Amino acid sequence: MKVKDNILVVDDDQDFQTIIGQILEKKGYKVSNVPSGEAALALLENSFFNVAILDISLPDIDGTELLSHILELHPEIIAIMLTGHSSVKNAVLSLNRGAFSYLEKPLDPDNLLTIIKRGIEKQQLVFENRQLISELERHNRITNTLLSVSQAVAQSLDLQKIIDSALEKVAECTGLEAIFIYLRDKDKLKFKGHHGLTPRAMANMPRELVATSGVFTNLLEQSGPFIVKDLLKAEEPELTFLKNFGFRSFAGVPLTILGENIGVLGIATDFTQSFSPNNLELLTGVGREIAIAVKNAQLYEDASSARALRELDTMRTEFLANVSHELRTPLAVIKGSANSLLQPDVIFDEQTRREFIMSIDRDADTLSRLVDDLLMISRLEANALEVKKKQHKISEVIANIEDRLDKLTIKHHLKIEIPHNIPPVYFDEVRIGEVLTNLVENAVKFSDDNTNITIKAELKNKEVIVTVADEGIGVPLELQQKVFERFFQGEGRKTGRRKGTGLGLAICQGIVQAHGGKIWVESKPNEGAKFQFSLPLNQRG
């Protein structure tokens, strides 16, 4: 049920209050009437109104002065000034002080209703804009923290430097009081680094733990976080040193990569902390980034091919540069649009405001997609991707994402050729939709405008084979395996296409493999590319 918009009428004319109240309530508004400025301010102290209709001549205060007080309390309120005596001076003063409109009595009800509707529409745009900015800032904080940790651990392949720089960066980005890491070494957990622990706390901290029992061992054996809200009530002996040195809450997450828990990231606060789902999601993401870097460092120590490792490091560095660029581009648009909308001395027409809001919304979606890609690649590498299989037809998935695909291919010709006899398959509809979206977006990047992009499906050897074909530059034979590696960036994208992060095809491969299928590309230079993936029939989960 739609919540009624609230309107406050401030006028000492009781007959006017009755009439205007009936008109507004008949149109679905909730109306409150008060006869004075004092009563209006008392009501506004504890209540919000979408619109305030103010008589300029009140018994206890001038209407324009009341207007200033109201806007101090609620800057978003739509204020409409009324007068029984026309005055250019009062009109100018009212509008300069922030009134949305200035009307003369007797009122034209239709005109008043039109102004109220227009004012509430403007108000809703402001609220939507603030909500979008708030959501953007939340996504931005998560992305910036993950990016900062990634940049910190990418600076070196020395294990201790990686741990020290990662912990320092996590503390800097989150403000956490104490952070530490234990790494698995055969049947033991060994302390490897900390940030924020005092020398006395360090002296009492166990350097080695037997990886057979206890809270840290339990963390190694589970995929999720472990939380102690109040350390004073904790019975775990491994956490005694934290309790004895003034810490009050603890959270631990496993350091996980490719399904293997290689260590534990622990954090402590000096106050009782309820860790929110967003906090835990961020900590888990940070743990995965650290785990990847630690594993890379361990592989580096054992690797015989320095060249392969240098290539991986170069690709990762380029990936971080690309992510930074992908962040800055939409952020600049959002910041510019938001600043324009919040200018107090500029009044934009409805169409211009809509364009600003649409621009913010579009680039917020881009940022959200980037965050999703970063979190998705972490889940895939940690073998933690959740796949919810149900029976679907490929044609149903395409129908559900058709608007998204149409936007991607607005300068191309999208053709969908799915025979009616293709049987249903067990898969996660959302995940396979992501695969198709990524493959179509990849086709757009590497093919000319006004060329065809075709989605096909066929039944072959108890599998449904889905194909996304383009008429672009193609993929050389020597790169047809490499394009599915994370961070890989192909050459030859068309002018004006964003470079991206090099994660799209790696994500596609991870999702398809999680369904028991395979993904590959068939191509000849300058004859386009056909990206294909298989989904087994009758594989329920």
How would you sum up this structure, described in words?
By secondary structure, this protein is of the alpha/beta class. The chain contains 16 helices and 18 strands. It has a six-stranded antiparallel beta sheet, with helices on both faces. Strands 2-1-3-4-5 form a five-stranded parallel beta sheet, sandwiched between helices. It has a five-stranded mixed beta sheet with strand order 13-15-16-18-17. Helix 2 packs parallel to helix 3 (63-73), helix 5 (109-153) packs parallel to helix 12 (350-381) and helix 10 crosses helix 12.
What labels would you give this structure?
541 residues, alpha/beta, 6-stranded antiparallel β-sheet, 5-stranded parallel β-sheet
Oligomer: single chain
Gross morphology is: globular
**Beta-strand percentage range:** 15-25%
Distance between the termini: 40 Å
The overall pLDDT, averaged over residues, is 83
Biggest sheet: strands, sense, closure? 6 strands, antiparallel
- Strand order within the widest sheet? 8-7-6-11-10-9
> What is the CA-atom radius of gyration, in angstroms?
30 Å
What is the number of beta strands?
18
Give the count of helical stretches: 16
> Uncertain segments of ≥5 residues (pLDDT<50)?
none
Helicity level: 40-55%
Structural class: alpha/beta
